[in-house]
Known about the structure:
Blueprint: H1 2-20, H2 25-37, H3 48-55, H4 60-71, H5 84-101, H6 107-112, H7 114-127, H8 129-149, H9 152-163, E1 169-172, E2 188-192, E3 197-201, E4 209-212, E5 221-231, E6 238-249, E7 262-266, E8 279-283, E9 286-289, E10 299-300, E11 306-307, H10 313-322, H11 326-352, H12 370-403, H13 406-437, H14 449-456, H15 466-484, H16 496-504, H17 518-521, H18 524-561, H19 563-588, H20 592-612, H21 614-619, H22 625-644, H23 646-651, H24 657-660, H25 670-677
Parallel strand pairs: 1-5, 2-5
Antiparallel strand pairs: 2-3, 3-9, 4-8, 5-6, 7-8, 10-11
Helix pairs in contact: 4-7, 5-8, 7-8, 7-11, 8-9, 11-12, 11-13, 12-13, 12-19, 12-20, 12-22, 13-14, 13-15, 13-19, 15-19, 16-18, 18-19, 18-20, 19-20, 20-22
Subcellular location: Peroxisome
GO molecular function, one term: oxidoreductase activity
Pfam family, one: ACOX_C_alpha1
Amino acid sequence: MQTSNSKGNAKAERRIRRLSLHLTPAAGVAAEQLEMATCGRGKVSVDTASLSRYMRGKHRDIQEKIFAYFNANPRLQTPVEISKDEHRDLCMKQLIGLVREAGIRPLRYVVDDPSKYFAIVEAAGAVDMSLGIKLGVQYSLWGGSVLNLGTKKHKDKYFDGIDNLDYPGCFAMTELHHGSNVQGLQTAATFDPITDEFIIDTPNDGAIKWWIGNAAVHGKFATVFARLKLPTYDTKGVSDMGVHAFIVPIRDMNTHQPLPGIEIHDCGHKVGLNGVDNGALRFRSVRIPRDNLLNRFGDVSRDGKYTSSLPTVNKRFAATLGELVGGRVALAYSSVSVLKVASTIAIRYSLLRQQFGPPNKPEVSILDYQSQQHKLMPMLASTYAFHFATKNLVEKYSQMKKTHDDELVADVHALSAGLKAYITAYTAKSLSICREACGGHGYAAVNRFGILRNDHDIFQTFEGDNTVLLQQVAADLLKQYKGKFKGGTFAVTWNYLRESMNTYLSQPNPVTARWEGEDHLRDPKFQLDAFRYRTSRLLQSVAVRLRKHSKSLGDFGAWNRCLNHLLTLAESHIESVILAKFIEAMESCPDPSSQAALKLVCDLYALDRIWNDIGTYRNVDYVAPNKAKAIHKLSEYLSFQVRNIARELVDAFDLPDQVTRAPIAMRSEAYSQYTQYVGF
Length: 680
C-alpha cells in the first residue's frame, strides 16, 4: 500500500510539474531540455554537404544558371510592393530575359527530359512564383498541348515560335460553368465541309473560357478545348464527338489586337500570382483551318469523316487528359519547393529569435520551446518525405514519357493526382503555421509568408481541384480492390494492398499490439505495416458501405454518402506511398551520417502521423493503450532530436539567400538587414 502511495505521489508530482510549465514556460523549457538530454542518447552528427549532395537534383547546374542570371539583373527582381499591371509587365520581361538572354529553352525538355524541365520551373518559381506559373502556361500547357496532342505537322509549324516566345500562348480549357467537369464543356467546334474549317463558338455566357493564363495581355494563340461536332445530314443535324483540342489564333501577330470574333476580357486582380495575366475568352463564329485540330487521338478528313485509333468518346477523353498529367507532377514538385522555403525561413528565425529564459539566465531560442518544435519539426520531416516522394514521381513520369507503358501511365495518373492534392493542401496549411510561428515579424510582407501563401493557395485548385483528385485516387483503389476478388493483379503503386488486405481480414495480433520498445517503434516494417493496415481497413470498410447504400441511393448517392470516408482513404493511401519512398531513400543513402539523420527524420514523420490518427488504431486494438503512450512519448523525443539538427537539415536544402529572401531568415545579421529595410 505504501509503495502504491509513493508511486501515486510521484505521478502526481510529475503531473503538477508539467502543468506548471504553462505558468512558467521558460523554466519549463530548461527542465524539458535537461530531462531529454539525459535520456542517454547523443545528438546525431550531420555532414550537411554530404546530405545536400544526396538531396540535390541532377540538374542543379541549370538552376544555378537561372539564379545567377537574375542575381546579375536587379531590374528583373520582383519588389515587395508592385501593382498588378507592373507585375504582369515585369513577369513577361523576366520570361523573355530567361529565354532570350540567359538562353534557357524549356520546350524541348517537356517531352524529352521532364526532370530537367521541372528543375527549370522550380528555379523560375523560386525567383517569382508568377514567373514559374507563366513559364508553365507557355511551355507545359500551351506548348505541351501542341507536342502531346498534336502530330508532326503541328510540331513543325509551332515548335520554334513557342520555344523562342514569338508565339506566346494560352491553354483554354476551363469555362465559367465548368472547371473540374471537363467532359461538360460547352464551347463548340463545328466542322464546315464547304470551307474545310472548324467554326469555334461560345454558345452561352456559361461557356466563356475563364481564368485563362496569358490571355488578358500577352497571348497570341490558345489551345481551345471544345466539343467537336460533325454534320450528319439527317434529322440529328450534328454528331457530337466529344471534347477535342484546337489551335486558335486570338491576337494579330503585328498589331496585337484581338482577331475578328474574339472577345478578350481581364479577370482582374487576384489573391495571388498577379504577375500572370488571367483573362476570359468568348468566340463568336471564329473560323480556323481543319489542320488546327490537334489530331493525335482523333482526326477529321476533308469530306468530314471522323477517324480515331480509340473506339469510344471516353477512351479518347482519357487519353487526351492523360497526356496533360505533367501539370500535376509539376505542381506537386513545386509545392514541395514552396514548403522548403517557408520551413527554412521559419526554422532559421526560430533558431535566432530568443525569448524568456530561466531566472537570471540568458533568454533561450524559441525553437527550444516544445510548442514551437511541435509546429515546425514534423513539418520539416514532412518536407523531407515529400521531397523524396515527388522525386520518385518525376522519375516515373520521365520513364512514362519514354516508354508509354500502359501500366505506368495508369500508375502515374493516380499517383500524381494523389500527391498533388495531398502535398499542396499540406503546404497551404503549413504556410499559415510558419507565419504564426514567426510572430509579428512573420506578418511583414518582406519576410514572404503572405506572398508565398497567396501565390501558392491556388495550387489546391488548378490542374484539378484537390477534392476531385482525391476521389480519383479512391475510385482507383476501389477498382483495384474489386479486381483482386476477380483474380486480377494490382497496379505498381498498389502492390502492398495484396498482403495488407489479407492481414486486415485477420484480427490484429494482441502481442505485437502491446510491443512498445523503441527498436520496434522505429522499425520501418512496423511503421509501414501500420500505415498500410489503416489504408486496407478503410478500403474494405468503405467498399462494404458503398455496396450497402447503393441499393437504396444508387451509385451516385452512395458515393456522396461515403464521400468523407473516401477522401480519408485516398489520403491514407498517399501517406503510405510517401512513407515507403522515404524509407527507400533513407536506406539507399550512401553516407552513414546522412543516413542517420534521414532515419531520425523518417521516424518522426511516421510516428507523428500514427499519433495524429491514434484513434483509428485504438478503435480496432491495433495499438494497445501503453503502446499509444509510447508512440506519443517517442515522437516528442524525436521532435526534440530533430530540433538539435534543424539548422543542418534546412541548410541541406541548399537554398540560396536570393531564394529565401526574408531578412529574418538570413544566417546572420538578420535584425540589421530587417531594420535597414524599414529605413533605419
